[in-house]
Structure formats: C-alpha cells, structure tokens
Specification:
About 35% of the residues lie in helices and about 10% in strands. The chain has 10 helices and 9 strands. Helix 1 packs antiparallel against helix 9. It is elongated and about 105 Å long.
C-alpha cells in the first residue's frame, strides 16, 4: 500500500513533535550544567594537606565548628553539623598492631564538580576562588548531589522538619575576618597550606622531588576527576588511607554529558518510529468505518 502525501505529512509531523518533546525533556543535570562556572587550574585556589605533618590535634575541626557556628564536639565523621573531621585511619594490615595516620576529611571542592552538575535548582554552585558553595534557601532536599558525589561528602539532616544537605563551603572566608579557611589558620603544624592551585601543585611536586623517601610520587586531587582544589601529600599509598583510587581523570559531568546529550535525538527517533508503526497498524481502520453498511431500523 502506497503512502499518501497527507499520511506522510502526518508521520513526519508526529516525529517532529516527539523530537521537540525529547529536546525539552532534558535531565536536571543538563540545565544545571549551563550554570556551572568553569574554573581552570590557573584561576582556582585550594588547600594542600600534607598528611605527614598532621599530628591529629583536631584544631582544624574546632576552628571549623566555631567559624560556622556549629556545635563544638569531637567529630567521628561528616554530618550536617560537622563539615570537616580528622580521620584516625589505621594503615596497618595487622589489626593487632595498628598504625594510626590522621587524615583530614572535608569536601574536595572539585574543579568540575558532579554535585553542581546534578543539582536541578542551582543550590550548589562554583565560586571564582574554586570553592563549591551552597545556597540552602534554594535547596529542595532532593539529594541528587549526595548520589552524584564520588567522595560521599554532602550529608542530609534527617532530624530536621525541613531537611537540607550540608557540606564545607569555605563560607568562613566570607565573614571578612580571614583571607584563608579557618581550618588552615588553626593548624599549628603547617600541615595545611592555602593558595593558588597551580602554586600548590608546584610546591607539592618540589617537596616530593626533594624528599623521595618521605612521600609517594602522587599528589591526590591533581588529576582525579579532572582535579580537585583539596590536594593531598602522603607517605602511605592513598588506598590504604581510605581514598578512592579507581577514579578516572575525566570530570564526571563530562562523562554523563556524553550520554545525556544523545537523549533528545534518541527520543525523537523512537517517537517517529512509534508514530509510523501506529499509522501502519491502523491505516485501514478509517476506510472500513466508511465502507461499513449502516444498519436500517425497522419501523
């Protein structure tokens, strides 16, 4: 059976409508991606954390709690009221002979953060200084950022009647009292250094070159997921410190964008095919209705 001009236009129109619909049904992260502020290695600032210099005094914990008006306590992990904590990590494979290495944990402030790309309302955003900031007034508590973060950083306030997420945002620098994070100012052993990310990387590289027996030849955060603004030096392999070492060097938003950008075209193609199938299946029904005899009532 040949396709008439009118039927052909119907099929093409239906396919075009589905294509337009597919273009408008973009996942939340596509809209959020346009809100991201690209921060190059030369623009962003960051913190270099030398784990070999950390003595586990927890001064950074207390300074963070005070600067952010949070309850002062000994932290055991990241919570809505604990934005950084010192993890007393056992690096020994022998449980009976533990070797404790203090490691400061907090938001990694990725150069190209997955949490920002996944937020459908722009509550998370990238600041010019490299920090990943958070606007609680915009947050709808969807927890997409918690699922997107490869480091498991954002935490959720389950006890609140209006629950939101929380994380380190370096808001302590916005009070006009300091030009570097409160945790960096409080460190008595210079285990934390604040500065331009490119300068911190150069300094870390020189420190590794000068002390090859003290440090492993790896700056954690330099390349992981496109880079983070929180950088680490260590004498112990990072997997033994509890760090993820299976991360790619490509930013996660780029990986998801490669798949998400094809969604409109796929939806449009599927819609056009389904429209053609529906037309082909029901192509003879209208003719049968016209040709069907009309019953005559007996009077």
């Amino acid at each position: 059976m040949q396709l008439s001009r009118r039927d052909f236009l119907k099929v093409v129109g239906a396919g075009a409508a589905m294509l337009g619909l597919g273009a408008n049904i973009a996942p939340p992260s596509l809209g959020a991606r346009a809100r991201r502020v690209p921060i190059s290695n030369k623009m962003g600032y960051g913190v270099l954390i030398d784990t070999t210099q950390c003595v586990g005094c927890r001064s950074c914990e207390r300074a963070c709690q005070v600067a952010n008006n949070l309850p002062v306590c000994v932290a055991t992990g990241l919570t809505p009221t604990t934005l950084t904590f010192v993890d007393m990590h056992n690096t020994s494979a022998n449980p009976s002979a533990p070797v404790i290495q203090p490691v400061k944990r907090q938001c990694m402030h990725c150069v190209d953060p997955a949490c920002v790309a996944s937020c459908p309302v722009g509550a998370l955003y990238k600041k010019d200084n490299g920090a990943v900031a958070y606007d609680a007034d915009k947050c709808i508590g969807c927890r997409y950022c918690m699922m997107a973060c490869p480091f498991g950083i954002p935490t959720y306030d389950w006890n609140s009647p209006n629950p939101k997420i929380n994380k380190c945002t370096q808001n302590c620098m916005a009070d006009g009292k300091r030009d570097r994070p409160a945790c960096v100012e409080a460190c008595p052993n210079q285990a934390l250094m604040y500065g331009k990310r490119e300068d911190l990387i150069a300094f870390a590289q020189s420190r590794i070159a000068q002390r090859p027996n003290t440090y492993i030849n790896h700056i954690y955060g330099e390349k992981e997921l496109g880079g983070t603004t929180m950088l680490y030096l260590s004498k112990t392999p990072f997997d033994r410190l509890g760090f993820r070492t299976d991360l790619p060097s490509e930013p996660l938003p780029d990986l998801t964008w490669n798949a998400q950008s094809k969604i409109p075209a796929v939806l449009g193609t599927v819609g056009a095919v389904l429209s053609a199938i529906a037309w082909w299946t029901h192509r003879g029904e209208s003719r049968k209705l016209v040709e069907a005899p009309v019953p005559v009532k007996n009077e």
